[in-house]
Amino acid sequence: MQIMITHGSLAQTRVLQFTRLQLSVVLTALVLLLLLLSGLIYHFVFLTAARERWPVVSQVVRLVVRDEIAQRDRFLRENIDVMATKVGEMQAKLLKLESMGDRVSSMAGVKAEEFKPLLGPARAASSAAVRGGGQGGPYVPGLSVNDRESLDALLSDMDGLDVRTDQTIDLFTLIESRLLEGRLTQLLVPSTAPVVGPVGSGFGFRIDPFTGHGALHMGLDFPADVGTPILAAAGGVVVSTQVHPAYGRLVEIDHGNGLVTRYAHTSKILVKNGDLVKRGQLVAQVGNTGRSTGPHLHFEVLVDGVPQNPARFLAGRGSAPGAQASAERTRRPRAAASAAADSGG
């Protein structure tokens, strides 16, 4: 781009040449200068006019600001309406969840005294009212902008919902813990047959195969081939792996609550003292060691050291070990437990 400058005082015409880059820089500088001037004018004229209330300018500024404030208030009010409705729906759902938690807690065996600290005064009064009589009626959200135009009230209700949600989570955590305790209790009952197959000699008095005299047989015999897998009747801790003169290679598992199971005459022991085993885990293999006339597993259940009939446990699957132990303590055999050291499986 060329610009020619002519003047009477000049001997010849001057020619100025500009590139596109130079023109762009100049235009950009002009635009920035105009923006800066506009900002200065707005700041020093309009704001000063608004503060000092100039007759014309102040009225224009006041109308613009008033319209912006009205739009902002309208937007805020609409959002509070929506939030209030959502909070009301959340309150209704949380109330249903709390009622469900109360029912499930009673089914799980959680006593009301255990979660009383979780109940605030409002919820405790509500629970008392429900116990005192029926309640009902259509659901109407408790929050309304017409009744509560304050955002602080809405935030307070949301904080209350947060607290009640945390309390409900704590309650369900306690219920889950109790249900897990019940599940673990069932897993510790020796109710799974240690060997798949028929039972030979049962629990009780029989003719001893070595002496030919009557003697107490304190377990169940499971005839099987040597090497047949022997499974843990329930979860527990291995407390003994030894070679016994009468039992041969012997494994003992403690299931808690005074319950212990014995696995005798094994050919090979696959666990060691202190191992944690679960129901159905391989612990040994059938053999013919110790005081035995042939390959089989001799299986015993003891409650507080006293032999019990394992058939009662195998038949009563899923009973709690505490209940089983109590029942077996009332039916302890009168025969002396010292016969265990001399009787064959």
Question: What general outline do the C-alpha atoms trace?
Answer: elongated
How would a textbook summarize the main sheet?
9 strands, antiparallel
Tell me the helix content: 40-55%
Summed up, the domain count is 3
Instruction: Note poorly predicted spans.
Output: 124-132, 137-148, 317-343
Task: Let me know the CATH homologous superfamily of the largest domain.
Answer: Glucose Permease (Domain IIA)
- Which radius of gyration do the C-alpha atoms yield? 44 Å
What is the average of the pLDDT values?
A: 76
Structural category is: alpha+beta
- Distance from N terminus to C terminus (CA atoms, Å) equals 116 Å
Tell me the series of helices and strands, N- to C-terminal.
EEHHHHEEEEEEEEEEEHH
- Please report which band the strand proportion falls in: under 5%, 5-15%, 15-25%, 25-35%, 35-45% or over 45%: 15-25%
| Second CATH tier, the architecture of the largest domain | Distorted Sandwich
Fold-level CATH name of the largest domain: Glucose Permease (Domain IIA)
The strand count comes to 13
Tally the helices: 6
CATH class of the largest domain: Mainly Beta
